[in-house]
Automatic annotation (TrEMBL):
Keywords of this entry: ATP-binding, Ligase, Nucleotide-binding, Tricarboxylic acid cycle
Family annotation (InterPro entries): ATP-grasp, ATP_grasp_subdomain_1, CoA-bd, NAD(P)-bd_dom_sf, Succ_CoA_lig_flav_dom, Succinyl-CoA_synth-like
A molecular function (GO) term: ligase activity
Bilayer-spanning residue ranges: none
Nucleotide-binding among keywords: yes
Species, as recorded: Siccirubricoccus soli
PANTHER family reported for this sequence: COA BINDING DOMAIN CONTAINING PROTEIN, PEPTIDYL-LYSINE N-ACETYLTRANSFERASE PATZ
Superkingdom of this protein's organism: Bacteria
Domain annotation ATP-grasp: ranges: 493-529
Identification of the protein by name: Acetate--CoA ligase family protein
Pfam families for this protein: ATP-grasp_5, CoA_binding_2, Succ_CoA_lig
Amino acid sequence: MVETRLTLARIVSPHSVAVIGASDDVGKFGGRVIHYLIKHGFPGRLVPINPNRASIRGLPAFPSIGAAGQVDVAILAVPVAHLLRQVEECAAAGVGACIVITGKLADAGPEGAALEAQILAVARNAGMRLVGPNCLGIFNMTDRAMLSSSLVLEAAEVKAGGIGMVSQSGALMGTLVSIGLHHGAGFSRCISVGNQADLELCDFLEYLVEDPATRVIALYIEGLKDPARFGPLLRRARAAGKPVLCVKAGRSAAGAQAARSHTASLAGSYAAFAALCRAEGAVLCEDPAVMVQAADALDRLPRLPAPGMGLAVVASSGGSTVTTADMLPAAGLRLAEMGEATRAEMRRWMPESHVHLPLDTGSFDDGTSEAGLAACVRAFLADPDIGAVVVPMTTQPAMAARAALFPGLCREGGRPVLFVMTAAEVGNAARDALRQADFPFYDRVSDALGVLRALEAEAEGRDRAALPPPARPPGIGHPPRLPAGALTEAEAKALAAAYGIPVTRGILARSVEEAILAAEAIGYPVVLKGVSRAVVHKSDLGLVKLNLPNAAALRAAYAALPDIRLEGVLVQEMARGEAELILGARWEPGFGPMVLVGAGGVLVELLRDVQLMPAPLRPEDAAAMLRRLALWPVLDGVRGRPALDVRAAVEALVRLSWLAADLGPRLIEMDLNPLLLRAAGRGAVAVDARATIGGESP
């Protein structure tokens, strides 16, 4: 590709724009584009291109781009049959970039893909950049450059603010901007990338990280062209103090390839993407509407002081406070435990019997008063256990005046206050009061709780970013020389042991007599396992015989092995533990080495209780992964059971993560399943292992 004519900053904020296919008819793409540029006050030179008109919207029109003089950006809204010719003319005329709204290219099949490739070649040979095709262009609210035909631009005003957005769906981007505007949010730049023939999502993410007008970044992602760029860009955004929120389409594991290990089936591409986001402090959302509202909260509200803090719920309706509190556990949130100073302030306004969370201000001695409400909210915002206050307002007198209290209280207290106007149209005056105060609001409690969960995730990312980098554990050198292909259990265990991961003692035998000698050396009871590189699940084929107490039982078990080709048998100690974990590692193309931990044993794929993170890990990372498991209460000691040796599990997981980091793309996949976890202080041991290695050792 030759040197490009324009920087991304100049493409997003052009000095001159040509609209090819311009029209006075706002029912057409080209008509809407020029209408919106004029309506929203584009300050640069605006050039309509239409061979059949002398002027459009009062502006002189040109028959072709070649006759228009120097142009930074051309917006193409032409039929697909004319697209190649128009791109060629733009390239010849020295246009810096084309925003191609036209669709039905690579998104429409092989013929369209071939045309898209031709267009890309023309652009690259000229140093001209492409946005799209099949996109809805760019909204630049900061500089009033609305380079788009999206109907969201029918809004009387498109508010400028701190949210930057990149989306692979133009229509969804317009919808999200509309949702944001309804809630009073402001945007810096919003870019629809469409098919990403040339400029892609990571290019614009990098631009937004550097853009001084952008404070928060929201991404709608269908697929990453260059996943290896994504993680470092998230890291740069975090270093710049700019939270990144993502919605990733295609969360099913449909793209994951069948593989030999549990880890491969559990750690698909979406799981790897989610793990990378968590590791780099990005906030992963399920609902795009919640994503844009959370981005707005991060732009206009104070940040949560720290993760794990509780919430205060306060309203003048007992029903709304109770139902909101009931929704917290499902959202992964909790009610706060008030300190004594907070309780003392509440006792000034209500009977002792009502001093609790959630708070119903209808219980105030003088009824719900603004003075009492403000005093309690101030106390909440100073309480060490209260990270945020949720205010679900129902229908009541003076809603607008009551709502107007909260922006000042929030800014004074320095913690988020999430105001929920649940009263539909009856609450519009309250919404207007908050818009005038430049303060967010929510229409549904579930949206507010989704936003709070995103704020919690952002705080978790801040905490993680403050940790020192991962340190190599003592006692491990470099991986041993390994054959390519599937390893036997003994080979996989030897690899784990080289990294200091405890494994059961075992001896490979070629006959029943050798097996008996091995058992005597290890000590009964023992386990007998048939060894075959071709078998994934040994127990399913009857190749695992447990708890053999003596030589007679061992001889009988050996005779009962199925009649398949075996490389021998593995005799190993009969280990016991209180819980079974799976530890896994694999190389995920585009994302690098990943490690996994979860509930292990034969039901691992049914339970799917797993956590995934990029390698290598810090001990704090490994401990956090364990705490996020549904199995965690068992590990922590539930219902009087003793706590298990979580420290040993953390140590094993960290060491496996360094194994994965060292082997890199050679480690296709590896399982330690199960890792038996014993009571606290008694350690852990891997009783089975498998691995697949690619390539050759260096």
